[in-house]
Amino acid sequence: MNKLVRFQSKQQSIQPALDEQQQPVRPQQAQQGGKCYATLGCIWIEALKDATHRETFKIAIHLMQEYFRTGCTDITLSNVALREWRIRKDCKMEAIAELKRLGLVLVERHAERLAPVVHLLHTEELPEPKPKRFR
Is the dihedral of CA 37, 43, 44, 46 positive or negative? Predict the structure, then answer.
């Protein structure tokens, strides 16, 4: 018997075969919320060409994703929601101010510390959003 066969036989003898009931259970991977979809209308694209702040385009895409996910043009823009985009809160406020200056959104602030509510403008040229149905 060669060395490889002896090594394999030793490994097999160390670990007994598991039947179906003893098989380890693999945890299921968390789903990432389904497919992600966003589109920008021509008015948004033309206005964003004049954007100077680096985070403005990221926030515009996030706002459109939320619009298509919820079907609502009023979006609360929290710091937690922008964490996955790696956008700091001070950059968020500058980018929102620039979107407002470009005429793409209206901003409603209830208090200094609360997340602003952003009202999207020029959504009439976008396809109709299909909000998720609740079970």
Answer: positive
Tokens of 91: 């950059």
Domain tally, the chain = 1
Q: How far apart are CA 82 and CA 89, in angstroms?
A: 9
Tell how many helices (H) and how many strands (E) occur in the chain. 4, 3
Full domain range(s) for residue 90 = 56-120
Q: Which comes out higher in pLDDT, residue 35 or 95?
A: 95
User: Is the pLDDT score of 33 beyond 60?
Assistant: no
Q: Has residue 97 been placed in a domain?
A: yes
Q: How many Cα atoms sit within 13 Å of 106 on the Cβ side?
A: 7
Whether 101 and 78 have beta carbons less than 8 Å apart is answered as no
